[in-house]
Amino acid sequence: MYFSAARTEAFVRELLGLMFADPAHESLPLLDSVDVFVIPDHVTLAGVVAQVAHHGIMVGAQDCHSEDAGAFTGAVSPAVLAEVGCRLVELGHAERRRLFAETDASAAAKAAAVVRNAMVPLVCVGEERDDDEDDDEPHIVAAADEVLVQVRSALAAVPADTDVVLAYEPVWAIGASAPAPIDHVRAVVRRVRASDAVRARAPGRTRIVYGGSAGPGLFTRIAPDVDGLFLGRFAHDPAQFFRTVCEVAQAPW
Ligand SMILES: O=C(CO)COP(=O)(O)O
């Protein structure tokens, strides 16, 4: 809810201009090496799908209901999202959990619904803890254990051979002035990736991205442990978004 409808339209238009009209694009086939998605609000989603048609950019939704149809006034059907060209659905964002009573169980039910409708669940996970400056091994283990409860719940709801994106977003790093410390992000993500829940999945089907005050300059410091970024405020400027996509595309991993 940062953008008006007009600003969403302008953001996508400017982004397409940067990605596809920039002379650098000729020598940099960005979308060969990076999957790019934008996740607008539900109202503007179909319009954004039309804007990016044939450009290879995926459009996602910020939430959906766990049922495809029925007496759920005000909710958004995953079947309708798929019908209008939505490719992925963000679930369990920290704000949905805090303000709208989202739980691991409801996020898992929605993840199953998203897969049932041939879309990709982008499940937000992250620990609440920010009560200690220390970031030693016990704190990393505690953070990863908290995250893994969320991860196991979501992954148990979807087949092992379907694509899933896990967005690791420490709750305390969302809306902050800077991302979580590099070593913290890498250590927690390594533990998630090494978990039984992730290792039981088909190879290459689980991607882990980082979100929480992410922006240009971050990816090369957290890769190769992390597969990508989930950008918020620091990508509200299309130029910053484009710059970050280029950094990911040019990374040697
Ligand atoms: O929550 C986020 C993305 O969903 C992160 O937002 P910020 O990058 O603005 O902290």
UniProtKB/TrEMBL annotation:
Keyword annotations of the record: Gluconeogenesis, Glycolysis, Isomerase
Any one GO BP annotation for this protein: glycolytic process
Pfam families linked: TIM (PF00121)
Keyword Isomerase applies: yes
Annotated Gene Ontology cellular component terms: cytosol
Documented EC number(s): 5.3.1.1
Pathway where it operates: Carbohydrate degradation; glycolysis; D-glyceraldehyde 3-phosphate from glycerone phosphate: step 1/1; Carbohydrate biosynthesis; gluconeogenesis
Catalytic activity, as annotated: D-glyceraldehyde 3-phosphate = dihydroxyacetone phosphate
GO molecular function, a single term: triose-phosphate isomerase activity
Record's keyword annotation contains Isomerase: yes
Enzyme class name: isomerase
InterPro entries named among the record's database cross-references: Aldolase_TIM, TIM_sf, Triosephosphate_isomerase
Quaternary structure (record): Homodimer.
UniProt family annotation: Belongs to the triosephosphate isomerase family.
UniProt-recorded name of the protein: Triosephosphate isomerase
Organism: Lasiosphaeria miniovina
